[in-house]
Recover the amino acids of this structure.
């Protein structure tokens, strides 16, 4: 199961009245506007909204890549001053090193000073994640020889190997075909059940958000504000069959209508439309 959420615990991550603006040739551009929400330990939270609305900016703030111009972003009660090993990041473009083998990609973070472990322990960790991700037969292969789904499995394995407390995922399955994407969602749920993690997922897919999440945060067109936070009460572990339930369809309808209203607002601003309501 995904780690149980305890409402009595302090939030693991917190956005408090966060705003971000920066100067452009056409004047000041506001990206985030007074954003406040919390993520508790053990939650799987999906952020969904129009393209370019600021979802990835929020993730980058939590990862330590971006700082707000107003408000605060904290992790485990402390201000975020930069990237840290307790926060693993997985990008849509996989982010694996093409010059390293599959095994060496997984081992990479374990050789760095922040996560360094002895050789025997490193070998054991690599073997564990190679097996967990179904990559044992490709341990000595290079990423160019892997399919898209396999490269994403490698990216997840590398992120998990350093044992981060929090996993940040920016549309990690967006480039995959529908069947591979569903297989990757199921694998992620299995890994979370075995390992346990707190997760923030950026996605454009309503079905993906509902299937994976304990909560969905819908954000507005730019500047991003919190439009609505929706609890997803389906128990873990989850099965594909829940996607055929009437309750799933009702949540899909609600989330889709919320997001589409923001796409309409974005179109009125002259923005770009990109939306998927299926995984």
């Amino acid at each position: 199961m995904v780690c149980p959420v305890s409402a009595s615990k302090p939030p693991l991550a917190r956005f408090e009245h966060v705003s971000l603006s920066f100067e452009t040739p056409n004047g000041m551009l506001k990206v985030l506007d007074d954003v406040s929400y919390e993520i508790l330990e053990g939650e799987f939270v999906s952020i969904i909204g129009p393209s370019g609305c600021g979802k990835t900016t929020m993730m980058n703030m939590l990862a330590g890549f971006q700082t707000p111009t107003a408000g605060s972003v904290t992790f485990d009660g402390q201000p975020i001053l930069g990237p840290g090993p307790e926060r693993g990041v997985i990008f849509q473009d996989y982010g694996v090193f093409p010059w390293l083998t599959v095994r060496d990609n997984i081992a990479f973070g374990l050789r760095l000073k922040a996560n360094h472990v002895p050789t025997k322990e490193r070998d054991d960790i690599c073997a564990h994640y190679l097996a967990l991700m179904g990559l044992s037969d490709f341990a000595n292969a290079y990423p160019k020889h892997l399919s898209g789904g396999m490269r994403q499995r490698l990216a997840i394995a590398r992120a998990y190997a350093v044992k981060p407390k929090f996993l940040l995922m920016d549309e990690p399955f967006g480039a995959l075909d529908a069947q591979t994407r569903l297989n990757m969602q199921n694998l992620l749920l299995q890994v979370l059940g075995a390992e346990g993690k707190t997760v923030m997922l950026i996605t454009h897919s309503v079905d993906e958000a509902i299937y994976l999440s304990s909560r969905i945060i819908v954000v507005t067109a730019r500047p991003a504000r919190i439009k609505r936070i929706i609890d997803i009460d389906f128990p873990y572990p989850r099965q594909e069959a829940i996607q055929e339930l009437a309750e799933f369809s009702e949540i899909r309808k609600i989330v889709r209508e919320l997001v589409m209203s923001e796409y309409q607002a974005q179109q009125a601003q002259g923005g770009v439309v990109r939306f998927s309501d299926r995984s």
